[in-house]
Amino acid sequence: MQIAKNSVVTFKYDLKVDDEDDVIDSDELTSLIGHGQLPPGLEAGLLGLAVEATKLITVAPEEGYGERDEAKVIGIPRSALPEGMPIEIGMPLELEDEQGEPHMATIQGTEGDDVVLDLNHPLAGSTLHFDVVVTEVRAATAEELQHGHAHGPGGHHHH
Ligand code: ZN
User: Fold this and answer.
1) Residue 18: what pLDDT?
2) For a tag site, which of 124, 126, 150, 158 has the least CB within 10 Å?
3) What residues have a C-beta under 5 A from ligand 1, the ion?
4) What's the 127 CA to ligand 1 centre distance in angstroms?
5) Alpha helix (H) residue ranges in 115-154
6) pLDDT of 69-94, one tens digit each?
7) How many Å lie between the centroid of ligand 1 and the Cα of residue 155?
8) Distance of CA 80 from the midpoint of ligand 1 (Å)
9) Residue 28: its pLDDT value, please?
10) From ligand 1's centre to the CA of 10, what distance in Å?
11) Which residues have CB under 8 Å from 131's CB, separation 6+?
12) Do 50 and 134 touch, CB atoms closer than 8 A?
């Protein structure tokens, strides 16, 4: 069976970025294809592969996590952060917006009484090199299609 829209695929990957030699992430993922669960360029590179296929998939920023947007670098008053929280440059933070949706941010520095946060995805602006091995391909269940994500090991779990 080849990977197509509405396949559920499990794959292992090693991720390198830009021209760097270090693997920055290595994991196994289970994902529903064609529902925006993966960066578009990675998903496009997986289409047509079958179990045991290996492939180096290179994804440009616009097909990955987007270009960096300097408008997403914002200052917030230090008093808006929990009291006593250490302010360390490069430290990741999880913020909630008015709707209670989580957003990842990185502390970039301080400016007067403000803490400068970078709300860009840490991999925004990077070219991604995924070295993938496909370990399972199956058709999605009706329930997975309805939810728009994969279930089972490596996928979403509902309680
Ligand atoms: Zn679900």
Assistant:
1) 96
2) 158
3) 147, 156
4) 31
5) 142-147
6) 999 999 999 988 888 888 899 988 88
7) 9
8) 34
9) 96
10) 16
11) 13, 14, 15, 16, 54, 55, 56
12) yes
Which stretches of the chain are assigned E, i.e. beta strand? 7-17, 25-32, 54-59, 73-77, 92-96, 102-111, 114-118, 128-139
- Could you tell me the distance, in angstroms and rounded to a whole number, from the CA of residue 152 to the centre of ligand 1? 9
Q: Tell me the CA–centroid distance for residue 25 and ligand 1, in Å.
A: 25
For the segment 109-137, what is each residue's pLDDT rounded down to a tens digit?
999 999 999 999 989 999 999 999 999 99
Taking Cα atoms as reference points, which of 124, 93, 91, 121 lies closest to residue 109?
A: 91
Q: Which residue has the tokens 């490596």?
A: 154
- The stretch 14-23 carries a mean pLDDT of 97
Provide the edge-to-edge strand list for the sheet that holds 7-17. 25-32, 7-17, 128-139, 54-59
What is residue 83's three-state secondary structure? Answer: coil
